[in-house]
Amino acid sequence: MNKRWAIRDMPAFDEVANLAAELNIDPVLSTLLLHRGIKNYEEAKYFFRPDQRHLHDPFLMQDMEKAIDRIEISIAAGEKIMVYGDYDVDGTTAVAVVYSFFKNHHSNIEYYIPDRYAEGYGISTQGIDYAREHGFTLIIALDCGIKSVDKIAYANGLGIDFIICDHHTPGDELPDAVAVLDPKRADCAYPFKELSGCGIGFKLAQAYAEKNGLPFEDVSRYFDLVAVSIACDIVPIVGENRVLAYFGLQKLNTDPCIGLKTLMGVAGKSISYTISDIVFLLGPRINAAGRIDDAKHAVELLTACNDEAAQIKGDLINLKNTERKGHDLQITDEALGMISDSQVLIDRKSTVVFNENWHKGVIGIVASRLTEKYYRPTVVLTRSNGHVAGSARSVLGYDLYEALCGCSDLLIQFGGHKYAAGLTMHPENVEAFIEKFEEVVSATITAEQLIQQIQIDAELRLTQIEPKFFRILNQFAPFGPENMSPVFLTKNVYVSGNPVLVGQNHIKMTVMQEGSALFDCIAFGQGEQLSQIVKDVPFDICYSIEENVWRERRTIQLNVKGIRV
Q1: Fewest Cβ atoms nearer than 10 Å: which of 180, 461, 463, 550?
Q2: DSSP letters of 350-377?
Q3: Kind of pairing, strands 4-7 and 161-165?
Q4: Side-chain-side CA neighbours of residue 501 (13 Å)
């Protein structure tokens, strides 16, 4: 698929030059800072030197005092506390952090993860009934609950109190819980709105530690788990999340908890983790526990206290991930076949595919793969508990949640955000939904949004890539949403030697520009361009700059996103 190259608007020349002079850096680097809203030395220092003192006071969060007061009463009275969390990475890491922290101060505490298939997302009646039957009087809900108005009312009627720690957008009415911790509450003055669910749980632990005079090390020991949640829940890596991710990666790479250390081992990479490594190596394995079996296995791994117990759980989760991959590849192949066999589906501006036998646990992954292939808003549907459940993914700039609002008369329920959502409908509404979704998307999506684009941050000459430039560029990390690894454009480069095809469809080559050194390049998935790359014929590349480590030798490598002859 051809991708559109889109170069970002450049800041004013004077701003670029002044910041470059003030910081003594290349103007391209000052351009990148200005793109991130950084305009002077002080802001640059804050950005380049994350500090634990940059973390906000947890008591700035609405209801935090109420939450800590209720927990203290519960601990003093010896009440049974349940830590309740969602079954994905954010939910399971949140449960691991809050359970592990409070377990050190209260022995009468357990955790509960709802079954993805029997109970579904969020707080369930079944979970509340379990709490009542087993004598729990306080439930701390993590990464869910902000819209569970009826469930909290049900729990209140049974004499069970709730503290909700969520980061999703609230509905019109807040649940009647003892405390509702969510920076997205309209009345919450907390300075940072984009914490992960695990991040909210971390702030709860931080508040308890502050109130009770505990050392910060009692909380910071969970930085690695918070970083895993930030990476896998795809929250913006700016502000407080950047600080948490920075120190979380440090801990992950030097002193990870036993469970994560074991998981890194079974994933085949034990050092030098980046946000991207977490997303592709650790996240799918943690998620696989809940997708294929029971997410409690993930929490048991993340809270393991000895190597033997962790290894047993790590091996089990790795096995479930292998099983998940099998379902994923099979369903993706079937879905791609359904589309390629139908000219009607090929010609549409949306993709909706349905097979009642598909495994519900992987339809979100399949939706992502179909979106990559056809680049348009996509919904994958399957049967679940007598209904049809779906997972939806969008393309850059298109609001999927709004599109689903346009189909709400055909849905039992739906939720999510601009780029990803889940939905449920009655089986008899599937055909009508397919047509309605296409109608809504066709009326609201632009032609540009249907063409995948490579966003280029700045033009660069290869001679500018020298050690100081690369050292400062590395300090822009950790990379992620709203702080992506910069993509550069270099025009009129020449290939040196013969480019070769490696792996399944990747080009490996060495390029240079007039007066520059030679740079190794890898162009993933672009094998069809190989015939275009001819010695002595100039071409343009857009790329990110990264460090390649091979047998302890470190070199700069260009990760080529696009080639234009």
Answers
A1: 550
A2: SEEEE-TTS-GGGHHHHHHHHHHHH-S-
A3: unpaired
A4: 10
